[in-house]
Sequence to fold (700 residues):
Amino acid sequence: MTKKAPSLLQAMPQPAAKLCLDVEKFITQELGFDPAGKELTLAFSGGADSKALFYILLALAPRLGFTLSLAHLDHALRAESASELKAAEALAQGFGLAHYTTRVDVAALSAGLKLGKEEAGRVARLQFLQSLKNSNPQRWIVYGHQLNDLAEDVLMRLVRGTGWPSLGGMQGLDEKHRVLRPLLLTSRADIENFLDSLKTAPPQGWGAEKFNWIDDPLNHDQAFLRNRMRAKILPLLLEENPSFLESIADLWRLAAFDGELFAHLLKGKNKTDAAAALSLPHAALADLPKALRLRLYKERLEALGPGQPLLRNLLNLDRAWEKRKSGTVIQFPGHKSARVERGEIKFSKG
Amino acid sequence: MTKKAPSLLQAMPQPAAKLCLDVEKFITQELGFDPAGKELTLAFSGGADSKALFYILLALAPRLGFTLSLAHLDHALRAESASELKAAEALAQGFGLAHYTTRVDVAALSAGLKLGKEEAGRVARLQFLQSLKNSNPQRWIVYGHQLNDLAEDVLMRLVRGTGWPSLGGMQGLDEKHRVLRPLLLTSRADIENFLDSLKTAPPQGWGAEKFNWIDDPLNHDQAFLRNRMRAKILPLLLEENPSFLESIADLWRLAAFDGELFAHLLKGKNKTDAAAALSLPHAALADLPKALRLRLYKERLEALGPGQPLLRNLLNLDRAWEKRKSGTVIQFPGHKSARVERGEIKFSKG
Fold:
């Protein structure tokens, strides 16, 4: 069965093969990522995005020289979830691929952690995928997030009060956390067309059912902010501009370029020494323009651990710094804080 | 009658006076604008925003040392519009202020120019206000745009495909075009509360009817993009985050800081020589990061005249430049274009 993979690209209908090559170009050229020799472990739900990405990566693996494997978490929130886990395992086995699956009672976890089910599911997935990363330093986690997800993400960040360039949305490549999102600039419509075209004209010897996908009812639950963005807000914006998703892709690109520029402008301001990283002397800030001071605060806070600083908090910190209001403490998400002191700003966590 | 103005701030209910002082702070501190000795001509429609701004500026004029005057254009689109023009004149006269009014048959202009009525109205207003600016170099045009307008503007720019920092919305201070927007970070709710509080407790000798405002039915016409943003999209975002307007204000501030940073980083790249401004030699671009090249294109294009370049067009130009695709022409709004040539990019208009 593994012999099929090298020829998969040739066996696909032409538009489906083109999509694979567009994704390859995105990975290698736009993201500048070389996956050769790495294990790419796909976070697989069985939905359209991860199902399509599975076949795209299967087609690209021999071209780019990576090993594909599959990870699936059974959230135990729906009756069908146990059989979906079995189907994920069978899919990987059918192509001789490694697979990592586990079952977490997310409802119980949600009650135990006093978190919503959406958030508890996220915690369970992150733990599961983190343990996989820990077990293999050559492993990268690959997510099926696509352009519609990115647009929803940008809107949620806008609503939440995120600054620039974070407003441009989730990263396509996160080297620090070994995360890759190859479909980030591919629209949901293109992904469904990809699967539909393969269903209509499957490679010889393959059944059309290989390209079915699961429509998780939780993706329609209007109790979740992301689903409200998807169902109510995004359609209105697409009505105003049918190319809205392309605009989002462009904005994401600009955010990446600006992120590089800010990193470049702040080079040398970044302390590798852990103790120094927790302090910003007033003197080091005084010769920076406000735009760069705000980004420097952000870098220091992000180095302390997870939790996106809100723009509002960063602006408040800078106002306190401008007035040298010693003793002012600004709180940030993720239990982080910054304190203006006599000669410096001190960052701390916990 | 003019004697009333100096004491207006003291005669107002306390929260209304506070709003005036907040606006003063915004003008002088956040925008860094000193209006002393200038004539501030308010673009007055009679709606809540310009009605409130009229009294706010009336209260601030003696404190900040500017002269207030009023401009009103009768669009002749509604039966009441002629009497609204008379009311605008009477308002200014009542306080001994200069006023400039005119009537344009916008429906006829719309037919003549083959433009929508919204766009034709905009053209008529711009011409009218431009002629007022031409007649007095000390005149600044003051608009009543407020924070809800800014949020709608940010959303429209997002939908349209605008890059950063233009995505942060319209300017509060435009020195080149002598435009000021003192209410830009004041919410519509605060403005209506201001007028309501004055209606409830008017300064001695003033009638409550002085604080009535006109609700223009055109502001509810769902044929206009801005009105759809206002009626359909903004409420959904406010539902997700009741502080969404504050987030927009913060984003606007960040965009202003970033605008200053980009201008600073590009200083020296800006040619004052008109011929040189139309050309960017490849050599001058080669040592710039992509983020700055994109902003340099934008500056050159904006110097050519009105029309906001879309991010998409800027990215396309840079891709063509990166590949040195001589002969590639990229079109921009406002009949502007850029052409990649053998040794340079050439910008032109018309």
Summary: Chain B has a mean pLDDT of 93. Strands of chain B lie at 39-43, 67-74, 98-103, 139-142, 173-174, 179-180, 279-281, 329-332, 336-340, 344-349.
